[in-house]
Design brief:
The protein is α/β, with parallel strands linked by helices. Helix content is about 40%, strand content about 15%.
């Protein structure tokens, strides 16, 4: 246990590297992450994060490489649908082979990445990654810090995709934010490496890891999630939310609605026909965010994505209000930036 998501990722990294060394592969230290990913702001976690600031904080942890993220809307490979996801998975295997499998400790990714635009991959993507990692002796880390505990309509997002990671990071909704607690969870085969070499401990320690007050908050939080069926509620209300968000597709800037459960996104574009990107110096996302905040809708518009991730207890009336505000703000912003938009 630890105090937050960044620490959970740091813990997962250290577990992966130490386990590989204890298995007899001391040269397996490299980690493959994905472009657009977010894994935290401590040094190792930031090294995995795509939007890291090298000007201020570089050089980063050695041995990290990034591969394309699954993206069916605008694939790096010029493909659509499941074919785009399959090629993204194949690229991971190419990177393992390019780096040398004997040097790669782990592959890490969020089952559904909020930072990368809430693209929901086909189940085959994660199933292929599981097979690829097994084939090359690489550990697979699922970062569930944002996805976990009902956010995607399942207790954990990995349940949507039918795979089991070697290590899973959890935080945030573990206590619903009432106390700082996180963890890195491992499957039995990983834990067995330590039980078979009992004289070697895990080289890791955090002052407030497993704090009893935080543990009590987490236990009560999980009890409430189960007793009030909040995972199922989030799934049900997520369907309603996406149905309402589809109405926004009438706007010239709204290209797509996607998500699962209470993790959703509206794709914002300057040209629907070509899936055109906004100019680098455009003020449209910032202006849209300001309009939303001024009307009491606390969210963010990052680049080309407007995020919709309300609490699992959200009501239909509150969802209706969110969509009404978003509709109004899009209309205003589109009018102000009409010269940048191809209708």
């Amino acid at each position: 246990f630890c105090s937050g998501g960044s620490e959970a990722v740091e813990t997962a990294l250290k577990i992966a590297k130490q386990v590989q060394a204890m298995r007899g592969f001391p040269r397996r230290y490299k980690v493959i992450a994905r472009r657009g990913s977010y894994h935290g702001m401590t040094y190792g976690a930031m090294s995995l994060t795509a939007e890291r600031n090298e000007a201020f904080f570089g050089p980063f942890m050695y041995g990290v490489s990034h591969v394309p993220h699954p993206n069916q809307y605008r694939s790096d490979f010029g493909l659509e649908g499941e074919a785009a996801d399959i090629m993204a998975a194949k690229y991971v295997e190419q990177e393992i082979e390019n780096q040398g499998p004997e040097t790669v400790a782990a592959v890490i990714g969020e089952p559904i990445s909020s930072a990368a635009g809430v693209h929901v991959p086909s189940p085959i993507y994660w199933q292929m990654l599981r097979e690829i990692c097994d084939r090359h002796g690489v550990l697979l880390i699922a970062d569930e810090v944002i996805n976990g505990f009902g956010r995607t309509g399942k207790m954990f997002a990995i349940e949507h995709f039918g795979f089991v990671p070697d290590i899973m990071t959890i935080a945030k909704a573990l206590t619903s934010g009432y106390a700082p607690m996180a963890a890195a969870v491992v499957r039995p085969e990983v834990f067995d490496v330590f039980t078979k070499q009992k004289m070697i401990g895990m080289g890791h320690l955090l002052t407030f890891g497993g704090h009893p007050v935080c543990a009590a908050a987490a236990l009560k939080n999980l009890e409430i999630i189960e007793d009030e069926n909040l995972v199922e509620r989030g799934d049900e209300m997520g369907v309603y939310l996406r149905d309402r968000l589809q109405e926004l597709c009438n706007h010239p800037t709204v290209a797509e609605v996607r998500g699962l459960g209470m993790l959703n996104a509206v794709q914002i574009t300057s040209d629907k026909a070509t899936k055109g990107k906004w100019k680098k110096d455009t003020k449209f996302p910032k202006r849209l965010t300001t309009l939303l905040m001024d009307r009491g809708f606390v969210t963010r518009v990052t680049g080309e994505v407007m995020h919709f991730a309300p609490p699992l207890v959200v009501s239909r009336d509150e969802i209706d209000r969110m969509v009404t505000i978003a509709d109004e703000c899009l209309t205003i912003a589109e009018g102000e930036f009409a010269s940048e938009i191809t209708a």
